[in-house]
Amino acid sequence: MDYKLALKTAADNWTNPTWWWESALPFAKRTALSGTLKPYYRVFGPESDNFMAEDWDNLLILDACRYDMFEEVCSIDGELERRTSVGSSTPEFLKNTFRGKSFQDTVYVTANPQVALRLDSSIFHDVIDVWKSDWDEDLETVRPDPVTKAALEAQEEYPEKRLLVHYMQPHYPFIGEVSQDKLDDHSGFELTKRLASDEKANRDSQTVWDQLKNGELSEDVVWDAYLENLELVLDNLEESIDEFTGKTVITSDHGNLIGETTTPFNIELYGHPTGVHTKNLVTVPWLALEDSTRKEITYEESATESDPEPSEAEEEIINERLQHLGYK
Questions:
Q1: Which residues contact 253 (CB under 8 A, 6 or more apart)?
Q2: Which CATH number fits domain 2-301: 3.90.470, 3.40.720, 3.30.70, 1.10.3470?
Q3: Which of 79, 193, 258, 283 is the most exposed place for a label (fewest CB within 10 A)?
Q4: Average pLDDT, the chain
Q5: What do you get for the CA distance between the two ends of the chain, in Å?
Q6: How do the domains of the chain map onto residue ranges?
Q7: Binning pLDDT at 50, 70 and 90, where does residue 104 land?
């Protein structure tokens, strides 16, 4: 739940000046800027697509993948179209796609700890948290290989279920040669992983987007590193895509901004602020691969128990505290 994350992060880092400088203040600036745009996009934003209502057996989600990047790099055969995501960030995508619904025909295989933070696992038939078993401590993320391995194992265990497979790449941290040679240390996904593991919630360094915005990095180098991260996950998929049974679609939960100006106030934004449904944040690839063999999907109930939902009074207090902390 969001209020738990906000309160825990603040409590863990309240007296830490590095946290204020590298995490809290940049977050507050992003929130203030994006907050001015949210009302505009609620009224004038594009109509979004319901990914769960689409025709697929396996939906492979590449985190933070822009459509133009994917179109430039991907060489996997299939029919490429555009889709409009329901969110401009992973938390918003998860909330708007899954919360309050039930998908007992679906198994979620995820490298992203946001799924554990934002969703009740009983929404799905099963959730397989690859970030728990295959976290790379040096890179502060999960490489593509163990995600694909876990997905194929899930396919064998649950042959009559749809598969949602959530990769971390191309989302930072950038882990290819360009990053190693030309970028300084930048935050990985350690903050979210620590929150999901109930550990002390802090970052080890600034995100690459904050460093770019502050003029510490070259946009060309960041773009090359970003593309390389996408190539890494696509190379892995190209080697294994034929092992997935049924109709497979490759997509993304949201895109990313790299200093583009956004309407209506021409504000430069970096990263993927929630609620800002501008083109490069919500336009995502939808690559459908043809397969004559389809799964026969079943709908057995999940064996996991749902987490209790807060009352209306508790929700009101939660929202008030989130606003004070700048999270809403």
A1: 61, 63, 64, 85, 87, 90, 93, 94, 166, 284
A2: 3.40.720
A3: 79
A4: 83
A5: 13
A6: 2-301
A7: very high
